[in-house]
User: What shape does this take?
Amino acid sequence: MGSRPLVLVVQHAEAETMGLLEPLSRALGIAWHLCRPYAGEAVPPATQPYEGLVVLGGPMGVDETGRYPFLNDEVRLLQQALRRGLPTLGICLGAQLLAVASGGRVLHGPAPEIGWFPVQLTDAGRQDPLFDGLLQEFMVFHWHGDTYELPPKAVHLAFSAQYAQQAFRLGDCAYALQFHLEVTPEIVERWARESPSADPQPILDGLARHGEASAQLGRACLTRFLQRALVYHDAQDP
Assistant: This one.
């Protein structure tokens, strides 16, 4: 087609940025359109002309549509992406929105999961293209208090000790990750220092112990996801 693939990235807060997704997209020759509804930017009404969709995390809850009406627009956009078979990735809040868009339900979790905790892959997760070849258990960064019920037709990919639902796949190329593979050390440090609800020291200690391994994991998995946008882009070539 002669043009670069274009991915739409929805950001919900100034501090919740693309992180690793930005340099990885650049390295693969993928362009992105950053939509910031928290800053008054309208959520696009349709998934065209995008060849991928990423919905990042955020401090709001899925049910706070009165205060954040753009969440309803995002659910509709995710539903369009699912109908198109568009490569789609929901992270944290984005994962919960993807669950709602596909018929699931979001609810409060047993306790906040904030910091570094291990995640285990299910049998299906170990065989999934996103996680293939990785360890069955790995340490990742979390920052959430809500969870979701597994949507109909979703494939359960991962769980943790506190939360049965940590990742799922819909179809061939729509993924929900409750944890944060995209974070960089700068992002983790900022969240830890700016949040009034968490003790920063264990988070920063965990960053020193687990940050590099988590970044390697993030680069591997997120590259695999972004490569799906390349494949989708090439498939549109008449």
Notes: The chain has a mean pLDDT of 96.
